[in-house]
């Protein structure tokens, strides 16, 4: 494998997972904060809020996972690795 | 499948996660990933055993194991009813329920059973859902299911959905049919593989205690992913039925 290609793939893998963690991080923080606020205001709705929160957190996490899949493809199944 | 360079340096020394290495079986000219098939059949047998044990002598007032199975079926029924609504959910319970139990069983089978004790010539036994072929197959099944739901309900009028708000959105609506299975499969695949990779890397760094929280997180994530996959499948079917 060309060393330039492998160097570029490793850098790209790092960037793809790092950059794709930013957005969902902000989103998850927002969602969790709002959920805590909701629980503080209405403690009896806690179980319902928790269920919804976990589901939506997992949806946001999926975005990071897409970045991870790209990173893994670059590292382990690189298409440019002739 | 590894690039040559990774075989010799610290990537593989640190983590012996065998991404892209498979235990190939040649079945009638097709290459199959044997390690995935083995674990899938294991999961199927476990699920069948549970189902048979739960329904062997059904009583009107459930006791013991039948109680447990009934609550499991209730859980799946709730997923279908929440998304599909009272009028349609009954005929889709089997599909949604099978998706949920199968993915749940696969994820937990990978997390709970020490597969690494069994040595394979190549590749390793792990959760079947950490192979992209499994998740893509499940996601494509979901695609067919919602097309079937739409066609059987509306016939060719189903295609009206593509120009629904305004005809300008046609390309985006067509694109959606491709991104749905793509995101479904990548979400499941990435989550499970990420868990296993993190556990492997941590285990090779610190073998004791430290990986435990990640393993527990993996068990939790496995169940949440099964829930999400079945919820989304139900939501897509509901969208096609609307």
Automatic annotation (TrEMBL), chain B:
InterPro entries: ATP_syn_F0_a_bact/chloroplast, ATP_synth_F0_asu, ATP_synth_F0_asu_AS, F0_ATP_A_sf. It holds the Pfam family ATP-synt_A. GO terms for molecular function: proton-transporting ATP synthase activity, rotational mechanism. The chain crosses the membrane at residues 23-53, 92-112, 132-151, 188-210, 216-238. It is found in: Membrane; Plastid, Chloroplast thylakoid membrane. The keyword Chloroplast applies. GO terms for cellular component: chloroplast thylakoid membrane; plasma membrane; proton-transporting ATP synthase complex. It is a multi-pass membrane protein. F-type ATPases have 2 components, CF(1) - the catalytic core - and CF(0) - the membrane proton channel. CF(1) has five subunits: alpha(3), beta(3), gamma(1), delta(1), epsilon(1). CF(0) has four main subunits: a, b, b' and c. HAMAP family: ATP_synth_a_bact. This is ATP synthase subunit a, chloroplastic. The gene is atpI.
